[in-house]
Automatic annotation (TrEMBL):
Annotated Mn(2+) 2 binding sites: 12, 63, 450-451
Binding site for substrate: 122, 152-153, 188, 195, 266-269, 341
Pfam families: iPGM_N, Metalloenzyme
Active site (record annotation): 63 (phosphoserine intermediate)
Protein name as it appears in the record: 2,3-bisphosphoglycerate-independent phosphoglycerate mutase
Annotated residues for binding of Mn(2+) 1: 409, 413, 474
Amino acid sequence: MSKRPVVLVVMDGIGISDNEFGNAVKAAYKPTLDELWGTCPHTEIKAHGLAVGLPTDGDMGNSEVGHNALGCGQIYSQGAKLVNENIETGEIFNTDTWKDLVANCKDGKMHFLGLLSDGNVHSHINHLKALIKRAKEDGVKEVRIHALLDGRDVPETSALTYVDDIEAYMADLNDDNFHACIASGGGRMTITMDRYEANWAMVEQGWHVHVLGEGREFASAREAIETYRNETGVVDQDLPGFVIAKDGKPVGTIEDGDSVILFNFRGDRAQEISLAFDNENFDKFDRVRVPNVMYAGMLQYDADLCIPKNFLTQPPKIKYTLTEELCKHNIREYAISETQKYGHVTYFWNGNRSEKVNPALEDYVEIQSDVVPFEQRPWMKAAEITDVLCAAIESGNYDFLRTNYPNGDMVGHTGNFEATVIGVEAVDLQLARVKKAVDAVNGILIVTADHGNADEMYEKKKKEDAPIKAKTSHTLNKVPFIIYGADVELKQDENLGLSNVAATVADLLEVAPNEHWNESIIKK
Ligand SMILES: O=C(O)[C@@H](CO)OP(=O)(O)O
Ligand SMILES: [Mn+2]
Ligand SMILES: [Mn+2]
């Protein structure tokens, strides 16, 4: 086994683009990254589409699929693809879970809760449409949609496109025996879709509008969105919660005897609301009223912890992870990030498993994230992460250490160019410190990213004189892969991607790669 520790840095959301327009990575002053790129073995690797198990090369990368691929060294069909196939073959509707959900709400309502867009990161509107249609065919009489508005995986103010689309779809299906409509909603960064326990108050607010029907009332989702936009000027992801009411009564509170389906397939932001419905000993906030419903997820979001208990699609069973392999060789692992990305370097990295493979060999550290608009604090907790990481590197207690700096991504999602430049610079400043700590222990440093975001901060202009529009979503761009401190030569191959990194780490640790992994990036 190698005596040289390996440190891997994921610069979340920092992709590569030659385009200067709206490129916060290029615009940033980042001497350390530039020096590493200029003097060390490096290449560009794929982080989107088929290379990370998504349905098409038109699908941008995201943290879940990116960290899964990094941590398991293989390409698995991911939730987006598995649900597509499950719906196409009709298998989803042959499951006992679907049949039970339908039977359960015979005299009640079927509720669909989830992210209303075609972003394909957490959900897809086509999946929702297929479920509503089949619910009607199977005899469900009342359907209610609880619509989380996106603007983070799709254009920043596109909510009405999806609301109009789903309402027209439901209007076509509605008749004397079937009625579907939107019952509640709100921006995904305001209600319901918190992750890693960063802010339970978001989930509590979601519970109030979706379940209890408590919140500001509007006659339609369109009215809610337009009113809030006029009053606050906020973009879709930040719109406050709303309740749709008719004659002074909410149209779709969640009641005993109803069925509830969370139609998101991605796990991080689906777990907390699932626990609120599913966990008998739930104590994160006062739910006021807990309806006796059958609840199911589109996927199971954590198979070890059984969250949720019922689900419609089997998640990918990710095997032969890097952590499993390294544990076999008694390699001591360390993972650290701040709350917003903590699960990325633990749960996602280890194939959506939150339990450790071998607690004696693995240490995980979470630095508490602030609950603030990140464009106001683009440095986030990068310095605090580094303080603790450098101490861990220098302790000599670990052979493989990994971290995720969220700035390029979390600030990139705000659509604020200037703040994102500062976010990238904050990461660069910390890279210099990590590099120094790596030098002090004669270690090896890998610098890479999980997908792009900060590299394209403006939507592509359709016309030269069109106004600049902020872009909040991820990109299709490749990401950097750099090795510092090792005398190696890297392959330069169009097809290399994030799934080639695990075998590369194993090479550097002088451990034989698992036979199921994709090839190492190091030339032999
Ligand atoms: O914030 C999130 O949930 C996603 C975007 O939908 O970003 P990331 O994949 O980088 O976590
Ligand atoms: Mn990411
Ligand atoms: Mn992101």
